[in-house]
């Protein structure tokens, strides 16, 4: 099967859609030529010239992340240090220190990381997460690298396919999710699913396609009628629709839902200029189709922890089937499409503190990284607290707090601040007093009442919390206490 091959001209055209500086384009062309010569005797497993790979990785980064020029150049050169005679000095001389740092960062994460059970994998994943905290562009190159390798996975042996796909699902997909990069996440998920369980993949794909075929006409009719109504109200808008990815449908079916019961299988997206218009559009939609109240979410007022903002409402269509509307501004739509890279203030693209705080994932990551005594400990905390299914609860002030499912008020308290955990007297969940080991649920409102006269946590709290973070902080408290006696 022939792969659609990206050329340098495709890459340059793609860059020009968001960045048109002539000298920068020349810089990219130079990196391409440099990498082409270095890789000229190498071939991919598919039989194609090796340069197709870095070129595809760079292309993905322009499309999925509107990457800056140093990132593009580094992605073109990302395999040169490892696989060719090229040295760090060669890269510094030709492309500068920053590109060299990025290439080096990617190279440190050795080759392909295999199944999480294999030796060296923990060490490697630790390096990736460390790299993320340092310069997010390193992991973006790695994500694009993994995506292209997943797209071309058919050329590997079956064992390798499964191992690589499983690791991608366990490790890279959550990263893509936390970065708010849905395009990476959705495509990676479907590719992983295809290789991990091809039978279920094909079945779900078939069911989804059949259902889309059956309901398409109805969806288009709804789009048309909303369009008409918005025009009558003189609203400046763009409208489009999408369906859920295959893996997303499969996950819902595991929860026991039939395909016709998935409320956001079809999502109609309406993009407008200003925030108040979003609410006006919401009113118009609700006057046309009755909403299912429980599924109305104002993620503009309360963004997700991935910074995704939009209004979501699911309404009953003409045949009583639910269909979702997503209403947001152009800016929010860019955030929805790009995720964290949206915030890059090129050329000053380093992660700043504000972004670390905005994305709770980073906060947890940096926290775990700072306190862990070894890579192993760091990865254990990351796996237990971050790479797991999450619930979202609220503070009394309405701020969203992200916690692993199974968390208790103790985990909540320590996530907010160690002083709050240490001085915790009472926990209130949804306006009633709750035991400290109560398992929190999505959307719970949690309030912790502290008392300064409390000396510290009780030892039994260790058995009542879920996160490594809380356990570590409680243990730290007792260590401190011991050493002060
Ligand atoms: Mn590569």
Note the gap between the termini.
72 Å
Say what the CATH topology of the largest domain is.
Answer: Hypothetical protein af1432
Number of H- or I-type helical stretches: 21
Number of DSSP strand runs: 10
**Name of the CATH superfamily of the largest domain:** Hypothetical protein af1432
Bound molecules: manganese (II) ion
Main sheet overview:
5 strands, mixed
Fraction in helix:
40-55%
Morphology call: globular
CATH hierarchy class name of the largest domain: Mainly Alpha
Percentage beta strand: 5-15%
Rg calc:
24 Å
* Overall number of domains: 3
CATH architecture of the largest domain: Orthogonal Bundle
How would you characterize this protein structure?
This protein has three domains: 3-181, Orthogonal Bundle (Hypothetical protein af1432), CATH 1.10.3210.10; 199-338, 2-Layer Sandwich (Beta Polymerase, domain 2), CATH 3.30.460.10; 389-483, Beta-grasp domain (Ubiquitin-like (UB roll), Roll), CATH 3.10.20.30. Helix content is 54%, strand content 11%. The chain has helices at 8-16, 22-38, 52-65, 69-76, 80-83, 88-95, 97-108, 121-134, 136-151, 158-178, 182-196, 198-232, 246-254, 275-288, 330-338, 353-358, 360-371, 375-385, 409-416, 418-422, 468-484; strands at residues 237-243, 266-272, 297-298, 311-316, 322-329, 390-394, 400-404, 424-429, 432-434, 446-450. The longest helix is centred in the middle third of the chain and has 35 residues, at 198-232. It starts with 7 loop residues before the first helix and ends with a helix. Manganese (II) ion (MN) binds next to loops.
């Amino acid at each position: 099967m022939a792969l659609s091959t990206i050329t340098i001209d495709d890459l340059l055209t793609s860059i020009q859609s968001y960045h048109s500086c002539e000298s920068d384009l020349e810089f990219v062309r130079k990196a391409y030529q440099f990498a082409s010569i270095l890789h000229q005797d190498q071939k991919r497993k598919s039989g194609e010239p090796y340069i197709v790979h870095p070129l595809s990785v760079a292309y993905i980064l322009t499309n999925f992340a509107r990457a800056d020029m140093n990132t593009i150049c580094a992605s073109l050169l990302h395999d040169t240090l490892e696989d060719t005679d090229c040295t760090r000095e060669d890269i510094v001389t030709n492309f500068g220190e920053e590109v060299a740092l990025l290439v080096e960062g990617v190279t440190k994460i050795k080759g392909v990381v295999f199944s999480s059970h294999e030796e060296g994998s923990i060490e490697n994943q630790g390096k990736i997460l460390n790299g993320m905290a340092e310069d997010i562009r390193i992991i973006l190159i790695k994500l694009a690298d993994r995506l292209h390798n997943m797209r071309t996975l058919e050329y590997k042996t079956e064992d390798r396919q499964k191992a690589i796909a499983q690791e991608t699902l366990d490790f890279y997909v959550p990263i893509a999710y936390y970065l708010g990069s849905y395009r990476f996440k959705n495509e990676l998920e479907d590719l992983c699913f295809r290789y991990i369980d091809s039978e279920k993949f094909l079945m779900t794909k078939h069911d989804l396609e059949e259902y889309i075929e059956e309901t398409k006409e109805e969806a288009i009719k709804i789009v048309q009628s909303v369009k008409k109504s918005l025009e009558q109200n003189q609203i400046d808008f763009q409208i489009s629709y999408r369906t859920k990815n295959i893996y997303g449908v499969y996950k819902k079916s595991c929860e026991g839902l039939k395909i016709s019961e998935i409320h956001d299988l079809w999502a109609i997206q309406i993009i407008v200029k200003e925030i108040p218009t979003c609410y006006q559009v919401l009113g118009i939609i609700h006057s046309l189709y009755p909403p299912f109240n429980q599924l109305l979410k104002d993620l503009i007022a309360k963004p997700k922890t991935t910074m995704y903002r939009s209004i979501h409402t699911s309404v009953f269509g003409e045949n009583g089937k639910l269909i979702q509307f997503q209403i947001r501004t152009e800016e929010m739509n860019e955030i929805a499409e790009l995720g964290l890279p949206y915030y890059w203030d090129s050329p000053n693209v380093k992660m700043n503190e504000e972004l670390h705080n905005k994305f709770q994932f980073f906060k947890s990551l940096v926290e775990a990284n700072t306190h862990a005594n070894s890579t192993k400990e760091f990865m254990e905390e990351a796996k237990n607290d971050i790479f797991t299914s999450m619930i979202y609860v609220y503070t009394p002030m309405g701020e969203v707090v992200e916690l692993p499912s199974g968390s208790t008020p103790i985990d909540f308290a320590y996530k907010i601040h160690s002083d709050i955990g240490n001085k915790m007297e009472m926990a209130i969940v949804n306006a009633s007093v709750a035991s400290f080991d109560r398992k929190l649920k999505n959307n719970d409102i949690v309030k912790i009442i502290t008392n300064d006269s409390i000396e510290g946590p009780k030892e039994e709290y260790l058995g009542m919390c879920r996160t490594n973070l809380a356990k570590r902080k409680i243990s730290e408290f007792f260590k401190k206490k011991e050493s002060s006696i």
